[in-house]
Amino acid sequence: MVDLKERFQALDHVPAPDLGRVIELRARHLASVPGALGSYPDAIGGRRFRVPPAQLLAAAAIVILGVGLAVIIHQARITAPVRHAPTPTPPQGQVIPYKGIWPETSLEDAQYAQQRADSGDAAYSWQVDSSQDTHVPQRFLQEQLGWARAAYVGTSYDPPDHGGQDYEAKAVFFVFIECGRSGNNPLYLRVVAPSAPSVGGPLPTDGANCAPTIDETHYHTVKVRTEQPAGRGRTGIWVVTGYQDDQPYVQTAPPSEADVRRLMDAYLTARIAGTGAEKYVGTLASDTTVHLDLYATSRGSRYRRFEIASFTGPEWPSGTFRFIILLTAQDGSRVQERTYVISAESVRKGVVDAFSFKAQTTASP
Question: Which domain holds residue 61?
Fold first, then answer.
């Protein structure tokens, strides 16, 4: 009632009209008109009845006050804000009822679906994900969000440090990117896109059939939360319990193949020449203590020829190219080096990188 009280306080500042003067003038006028106030010459006993003006004023004031109060109360009721009671907090130890999104929206529905899946009912057994793949959230994206095509790009867990099986976590988050309906990626056109793409499947290694959906390099990205409300394990059904937009996934514009080959040729030519190769060496990461012998074998035989044994790329979404090199030494020995990686950044810097680098002698004199 705080609002109503404030309304009455506001009325105290409104000047009241001089109703007494108005009513008194009106009453004098009516008294001068025969019969206007209910007095007639032929009334009972032939006497005229006269109502005192003070009574008329009192009656009129009471009527006006009553009407005014009724109007004020009505306005206060229809304009006062509705105050909802706060949502009650469940007692300590009480479990808040499970609420799913799709395809089951309640714990009772999920338990029923689990029973049907256990009995082999195909209408529900598809929700069992014993191989821990991504078909349940993929189907959600297709049927509920209207995605024509999607690619899986990552997984996270609740709790975040979970390291076991998916069904051992409280919840599993799957991250997907939406692929454009055109099916053509303007930055990765080495492979023709399939004519009838479907949701799911492994990431296309070249990205040719996953066109961006925001701009040339960014994808609409969604994180889908899944849980096993009716029982955890390999035979438990999975239910989508939430989803949200995630940070847009980014693909890198790859360097041109011509620039990549030009850089690799300059590096290898310098090695055969016996000088100047150092400036082309970027990051060299190895699982072992393999040493990069730039100009000669470990036995001291100079390299005299090179060939590119393998060339792949650009790899999607990083835009990198990979090389395996075969070097032939003067003594006839051959050394295979793998794997060199060239990205758009390394082309700009003019260096070649190597990850999990290995050098292996494949033939010796």
Answer: 2-79
Shared domain for 147 and 273, answered yes or no, is no
User: CA end-to-end span of the chain, whole Å?
Assistant: 102
Rounded CA separation 220/179 (Å): 8
Task: Decide if 90 is inside a domain.
Answer: no
- Are 186 and 222 part of one and the same domain? yes
Name the burial class of residue 327, with classes exposed (0-12), middle (13-18) and buried (19+) by CB atoms within 10 angstroms of its CB: buried
Question: What gap in Å lies between CA 219 and CA 210, rounded to an integer?
Answer: 9
d(CA 304, CA 328): 6
Rounded to 10 degrees, what is the CA torsion of 275, 280, 282, 287?
-50
Spatial CB neighbours of 281, under 8 Å, sequence gap ≥ 6: 267, 292, 294, 351, 352
pLDDT digits (tens, 9 = 90+) for 86-128: 334 444 544 445 678 999 999 999 999 999 999 999 999 999 9
Has residue 85 been placed in a domain? no
Nearest alpha-carbon partner for 246 in 205, 218, 210: 218
CB of 153 within 8 A of CB of 175? yes
Q: Where are the alpha helices (DSSP H) in 171-279?
A: 257-273
Q: What is the pLDDT of residues 293-322, one digit of tens each?
A: 999 998 899 999 999 999 998 888 889 999
Amino acid at 308: I
With contact defined as beta carbons under 8 Å apart, do 124 and 237 qualify?
yes
CA distance 49 to 40: 8
SS3 content of the chain, % helix, strand, coil (to 5): 30, 25, 45
pLDDT of res. 192: 42
More confident: 128 or 46 = 128
